[in-house]
Every structure is written in C-alpha cells, then in structure tokens.
Amino acid sequence: MKPFSLFTVVSIVLIVTASISTLASAEESIQLSKPPTSLAQWYKPQNKRNVWQHNMFKLRREIQAVKEYVIANDKPHAKKWALNLVEHYRKIAEMVPEWKDELELGWVNKIKAAATQGDLKKLSQGIRKIQTSCKGCHNDYRAQVAAIYRAPDFSNIMVKLNGKDVTYSDFMKMLMRDVNRIKIASEDQNKTKAMSSLLDVRQGIEILRSSCNNCHKGDTAKDYYLGNQTEGMLDRLESAIDTGKNGRALGEFAVQACARCHGSHRIIYDLKNEIE
Hints:
The chain has 276 residues and is mainly alpha-helical.
C-alpha cells in the first residue's frame, strides 16, 4: 500500500478534529461513528480494487465538471457529466444500503430532468443540494473510513530479532529507545555508549528495511525509505558523534527518517486502532 501524502494526513487530522469538536466537549468521552460493515466489500482486501474510493473520485470530478460547464453555459457537456453523476450517486445506495435513507435521491432525479431539459439554473440548484449531502456524510465518516480501509495494517507483522519473533509495535519501541540513548549518551559525553546505541539503530534499520520493502518495491522508493539516503544520515550522525557535535545530525535523522514515516503511517494507524 502506498503511504499517505502529507496533504492527506493533514486533511484527515483536520477532519477528525472537526468531528471530535461536534461530538464531545473536553470533559466528555470521544465517540466516532463507525461506517456500516457492508462497506468493507468495496475495499481491499475483500475487493481487488478500492471500488468505493474510486466511485467517490468519480462523483467529485463530475460535480466539478457540471459546475464549470454550467458557468460556461455549455448545456451538452453539462448534461453529459450530470448523467454520469446521477449514475454514480445512485450506486452509493446499491453498494451500502444502510446509507440509502441519507441520500438525496429525489434531488438526483431533479438533476437528471434538469440536465435532459437543459435547465442550467435547476441543475445548479440540484448540484448544491447534492454537495450538502456529501459534506454531511464526509464529516461523519470520511476520516474513519480512511483509517479503517486505507491505512496499512502492521498488527500481524513480525520481525526477527536475535532469532525471536517480535511484534512490529514492540520492535519500533525498542528502536525509539535506541535513538533516545544516542541523545542521552551524547548529552552526558559518553561517546562509547552513543556509538554503541548508533550501531543498534543501524541494525534495527536494516531489519526494518526488509518489512518496508514489502510495500515500497520500486528502486526509488527503496532508496528513499530507509535506503541510501537514510544510510547517509546515519554516516553523518556517526561522524558528528565522533566530534561531539551530533545535535544537528541526530535531529536530521529523527525528522527525515523517523518522523517522515510516522507522519504517513503512525497517525492514521493509531486512529485505526482506536476505531476498531
């Protein structure tokens, strides 16, 4: 599975924050609505493709097309995209029957009629109504759906450490402690311990690399994710420890190697665990 972009992660965090603010005050427990289980059949691994997601992409594109062609007074193209919109909007009820009552199917019929008749004013009004229904559902469910069905699942991944199987979560905690030991030892001017901890980090990265490469298969991705770029940062960190000026080098590694992946994977994975 490809990692989420920074834009996607920030969007999800903002959506979750907005959902939380409407569901509970600071003194109350937080409750996030879970989507119907029937949605699972339209996502991997139950489906070969993330069909639901692509249907949403189609709807977003069709809404944009209709609005732009209405502004341009282009009735033929507005009709074309409106009829596609009607088809894909109705699919929502077929794919997840539990959400049928939440849909504006009456307005979809009006959109079809307006598009067929070339009534751009009514067509524009119908699009606004549809967008309102989309926004309401997205506010209630989009973050949770992304977390449940689009986040990578690390729960079943095991890594070999000294001949023993260790859970991915426990392994990451050990790696984090090794990184912190570098900083602690350096602060206390214990170069020997800092170098020893750096060696543990190098070994941990090597173990971690094999699991990352299960998803990031391309040469460019392998180089980027814990590959040559990360090795270069570790080399610079080793030199900095040797000179006693490793603060900047350690910060570079922590941000570019650790935080970069955590931003793509850990935030959404933690949310996934809370929901499920």
